[in-house]
Amino acid sequence: MASEFGPAAERTDEQRFRLLIQSVTDYAIYMLDPTGVIASWNPGAERFKGYTEAEIIGQHFSRFYTEEDRQTHLPQRALATAANEGRFEQEGWRVRKDGTRMWAHVIIDPIRETSGTLVGFAKITRDISAQKAAREALRQSEERFRLLVQGVTDYAIFMLSTDGMVTNWNAGAARIKGYTEAEIVGQHFSRFYAVEDRVAGVPVRALETVVREGRFETEGWRVRKDGTRFWASVVIDAIRDDTGQLVGFAKVTRDITERRNAQETLEKGRSSLFQAQKMEALGGLSSGIAHDFNNILTVVLGNLDLLRRAPEQRRERLINNAVQAVEQGRKLTQQLLAFGRRHLHQPEVGELNRLILGMDDMLRQSLRGDIDMVFDLADVLWPVEVDPAQLQIALINLAVNARDAMPSGGQFQIRTENVTAPGSEVEQSVAIAVSDTGSGMPPEVVAHAFEPFFSTKEVGEGTGLGLPQVYGFAQQSNGSVRITSEVGHGTSFMISVPRTHA
Fold it and tell me: Is the dihedral of CA 175, 178, 181, 186 positive or negative?
């Protein structure tokens, strides 16, 4: 039993401990005597520092320190600290055999006998140059990011804790909101909101939205330190760690008061322009209607005045003239109602040739004696479904426009035909082509021809509703209308109405 636990057993423990130390290559583990002379050396020390055991045993450990550290007696102070306080720990530059430097983590522990007598030091060193480089890169990256954020003055960029407390502050936030970093860090961000928004719980709901959806974005009034308000664009994003745990919020605010004011000014300008255009349109409409009705009333009054003094045989013709003027007034009213969508569309199934031929007298009255009217009507025409009254008004409007475009006379033609869309036997329609040999229209006039109140006539000579009524008739009939015109070569209107099988 004595031999099992005697010196031989102790030597076996020492051997195992030595094997353990010698197996370590990631740490330099060695002993110093009380004066700092190296007494042992492991493979890790050789790998880090470059010295073999034969080269370094008996040398003072201060040779691993930089010249500037030796001048400040750091090696001696390290041993004194370890002896007096029981431990010395530090990170710093150390020098290898080839003169290169490494960033080392160093621990020195005193070694004492049972009696307390100091017999040396245990020194453990690890090369953490790579970790230091990574930390430095991270620090520089964070510093660059900090400088970037701090350099932004047009945006308030800052962070909030999970409960809404301001944790940092950039120069833009100080400029926009008026608080210095010392004044605002640690305060709740709700102080930037208007009183009515705080009472309504807007700040709390904003953070709840961010937690739920990851982002909150809005515009609204915010309050500066001096109590003045500004219109802000606000974005709040959630900040989470690698595990998804919420650690805070990133808040970006921009003062867009000037932009909002500019938009409001623009909207006011647009509103004023629209109002002016409406008044101009109403003025044109009023002038045109007044002119047309004045002509109608003149005819009515003139005939009534003559009727009062005329002999019996002339009275019937005068009455007919007055009735015809009143009928023209009725048609003008229908035109206005159709434009205002107050006229009830009353389509009937019919044959266009019959409707057009029945308008012969009315169309001739709308023209002048120096204008020839020509009908070129198809022999057999498909039936269509249109409002006869609206068709009549549309053709009269086109006749009046043709008359005004031919001050020296010319030809007014109405042509009809059946049309089948190319490549289709289903898309069938009836076309009415109304053309004249007048002065024609330039492209810029054609582009606006169907716009309400647009007219190239002198003020008081038209309402600007004639062609819009033609367009409205075609649309209400599920058809279309297009213009072909050339200055000096006349104008043609092609109205297409779908064929009906009713």
Answer: negative
Task: Tell me phi and psi for residue 39, to 5 degrees.
Answer: -110, -20
Judge contact between 467 and 450, C-beta under 8 A: yes
Query: Cβ neighbours of residue 178 under 8 Å, at least 6 residues apart?
Result: 224, 225, 226
CA gap 43, 54 in Å, rounded: 12
Q: Judging by DSSP bridges, how do beta strands 410-420 and 371-376 pair with one another?
A: parallel
Q: Cα(2)–Cα(234) distance, rounded to whole angstroms?
A: 83
Helix residue ranges, H only, 53-99 = 53-56, 67-71, 74-85
Q: Domain end: 105, 133, 161, which one?
A: 133
Taking only the tens place, the pLDDT of each residue in 418-451 is 998 886 666 899 999 999 999 999 998 888 888 8
d(CA 451, CA 430): 25
Q: Is the dihedral of CA 363, 369, 370, 376 positive or negative?
A: positive
The amino acid that residue 202 corresponds to is V
Residue 88, domain CATH = 3.30.450.20
User: Which CATH number do you get for residue 386?
Assistant: 3.30.565.10
pTM tops 0.85: no
Among 231, 255, 279, the domain-final residue is 255
